[in-house]
Amino acid sequence: xxxxxxxxxxxxxxxxxxxxxxxxxxxxxxxxxxxxxxxxxxxxxxxxxxxxxxxxxxxxxxxxxxxxxxxxxxxxxxxxxxxxxxxxxxxxxxxxxxxxxxxxxxxxxxxxxxxxxxxxxxxxxxxxxxxxxxxxxxxxxxxxxxxxxxxxxxxxxxxxxxxxxxxxxxxxxxxxxxxxxxxxxxxxxxxxxxxxxxxxxxxxxxxxxxxxxxxxxxxxxxxxxxxxxxxxxxxxxxxxxxxxxxxxxxxxxxxxxxxxxxxxxxxxxxxxxxxxxxxxxxxxxxxxxxxxxxxxxxxxxxxxxxxxxxxxxxxxxxxxxxxxxxxxxxxxxxxxxxxxxxxxxxxxxxxxxxxxxxxxxxxxxxxxxxxxxxxxxxxxxxxxxxxxxxxxxxxxxxxxxxxxxxxxxxxxxxxxxxxxxxxxxxxxxxxxxxxxxxxxxxxxxxxxxxxxxxxxxxxxxxxxxxxxxxxxxxxxxxxxxxxxxxxxxxxxxxxxxxxxxxxxxxxxxxxxxxxx
Length: 516
Ligand code: NAP
Prior knowledge:
Layout: E1 6-11, E2 16-23, H1 27-45, H2 49-65, H3 67-78, H4 82-105, E3 112-114, E4 128-134, E5 138-141, H5 155-163, E6 167-170, H6 176-192, E7 200-203, H7 207-216, E8 222-226, H8 229-241, E9 249-252, E10 258-261, H9 263-282, E11 294-298, H10 301-316, E12 320-321, H11 325-339, E13 345-349, E14 358-359, E15 362-367, H12 368-373, E16 385-391, H13 394-402, E17 407-413, H14 416-421, H15 423-430, E18 433-438, E19 477-483, E20 504-506, E21 509-511
Parallel strand pairs: 3-20, 5-6, 5-8, 6-7, 8-9, 10-11, 10-17, 11-16, 15-16, 17-18
Antiparallel strand pairs: 1-2, 3-4, 4-19, 12-14, 13-15, 20-21
The chain binds NADP nicotinamide-adenine-dinucleotide phosphate (NAP).
The site of NADP nicotinamide-adenine-dinucleotide phosphate has 28 residues, from helix 7, helix 8 and helix 11.
């Protein structure tokens, strides 16, 4: 709940307000956080990779040391089960460690050295060296649906800190107590590893006010965001059009993650597919950015059977408490809008339980012809709601995929021959997603080197990057080139002596040797 100048968290789990009141950050506090972040830009940016790795590992240890208290706080504030929160906390710790090991290995910095060619004819070549440098203070928005992994010490913060950027987190109203605890773990790590004071801070206030104020501030150099399309686009517009200097916005906003079920495989495995799909739709009460909101089938007996089986599984699932009151209300409002469009039929629709902050699963169906002509059928309904799109044949399936907006993921269920036969549909979907999954559901994002968690608009505002995995660091750096720079003025990673022993590209050869 929000009063004029404070928030009080409402626990949808208990159906009551939690006792602590969180005042909005004062103007003095906001200015101080920005100025301190700015002051930290050079000293923090110049810390060695090993120092930053130590810092990230210390944050991880401190978060772990918060133990059950942290899990309990997040449980009360988000209603997410303890087991899920434990997994998410561990993932957050692993993300911090992943960036620490990336820093220790060092080649991420993309050090390229083209040594001088004084005797080159007709003109000599200068000594030219390049590496990635931190972009400056990063504004991170905590996400309602991931109180750990995409919030205060989540992947945006971890990758920005790894890159050498100070971070200011705009805390999410839904889990302010969790934010406070994790922020204290980060601040303690700043102390323990002697990082500049302004390396990290967190601020509290309303998105359209504080969020916009920070996004407009010229000291902020990039934004990381996970949430709604509306807020993500408001930030994008501000960052690119309302500032003196535009800045990059990495907003993950809305994705309905299409699943394409090819006919033979559906016929052979309809029961297994229905079980797997319904579990994925229900996972986390559908409050995942990778939740499958669209299922493409080709008209058949098996497709009809799939509808029956999915309806059965979803109907027999218990309704479950959602993250917050706004999200549970939006779940029913948004699905009612979908149902209002031409050609949409209800397969199952549970009772509106938003007064209990609960979501009941919903399954809808529409013919591809309607899907193709009504782009609003692709609006994300955040929660356990999915729509089956029935296509007449392969050609209509291709046409429907061609009308899909950008997504984080797309899945195909099919055997080897079918996947060959539907190769064009795969090519079409590949143009519209960040990750293609074969014979599995998209929920469950592995944190690993090759992962891409991103995708074309509107799933994100910048489909060239990922917010999961080591590549996420590249969002918060830019290449800087040094021409004929004296050796001792160069960043240590570009000097002749390769003290850190990292791999560098020297005159086109990848090597970890020093330059004589
Ligand atoms: P949200 O409304 O987008 O809020 C996310 C953050 O942005 C909050 O800190 C919010 O602050 C801030 N904000 C809101 N409007 C803003 C603006 N105009 N300018 C700057 N900042 C702004 O998301 P949410 O609260 O997490 O959930 C609401 C809906 O977002 C859900 O129902 C769902 O549809 C969608 N969602 C999608 C995903 C996904 O992964 N695709 C994840 C989470 C949520 P305040 O809270 O103070 O307004």
